[in-house]
Specification:
alpha+beta, Lipocalin, eight-stranded antiparallel beta barrel, 2 helices, 8 strands
């Protein structure tokens, strides 16, 4: 009976572990397909599908640790990133030469889709698909 309990506990412990995220899991361009503020009571805080098609926002993660956030063909943000647990830690290069640090929390990630969220008071949740 003791062996069965230990075996069941081991299975439960392993199944509750989250996937380990490696930098190479992020490499490439991720096109935003849904952007919302999940904690807002205002439905206008969700970006419309039409606006997403028109602006074509995306984020690109390079193997050298560089990240670009692009919308309407223009770079909105760029900087360096690193992965720590389920967070993408970004050091953004600001136009005045200063930097700003902020994290994205990766809620789910597979080869085709990533859902991540900003960790600010006015959180934004993004669903993005990986472009090959």
């Amino acid at each position: 009976m003791t062996k069965i309990c230990c075996f069941l506990l081991a299975i439960i412990a392993l199944s509750s572990c989250k996937q380990v995220i490696k930098p190479e899991d992020l490499f490439g361009k991720w096109k935003y397909v849904k952007v919302s503020n999940p904690y807002s009571r205002n439905p206008d805080d969700t970006v419309s599908a039409k606006e997403l098609r028109e602006k074509s926002p995306s984020v690109t993660f390079s193997p050298n640790g560089h990240m670009d956030i692009i919308s309407e063909g223009k770079i909105l943000s760029q900087g360096k990133y690193r992965v720590e647990d389920h967070n993408i830690l970004v050091t953004e290069q600001l136009p005045d030469g200063k930097t700003r640090n902020f994290p994205f929390y990766i809620m789910s990630l597979n080869g085709q889709q990533m859902i991540f969220e900003t960790k600010e008071d006015d959180a934004v949740r993004v669903t993005a698909i990986h472009l090959r």
